[in-house]
Amino acid sequence: MNKVQLGSSDLHVTPICLGTMTFGEQVDEATAHRILDRSLERGINFLDTAEMYSVPARAETFGATETILGNWFAKHPSARGQLVLASKVAGPARGMPWIRNGSTDLTAADIVGACNDSLKRLKTDVIDLYQIHWPARHVPAFGALYFDPAKDKAVSSIHQQLEALAGLVRAGKVRAIGLSNETPYGVHEFVRLAEQHGLPRVATVQNPYCLVNRTVENGLDETMHRLGVSLLAYSPLAFGLLTGKYDQSGIDGPDAPKDARIAKFESVRMQRWGRPEALAAARRYNALARAHGLTPSQLALAFCYTKWQVASTIIGVTSVAQLDEDLDAHGTTLSPEVLAEIDKIRWEARDPAL
Question: Of 53, 130, 234, 305, which residue is the catalytic one?
Answer without folding.
Answer: 53
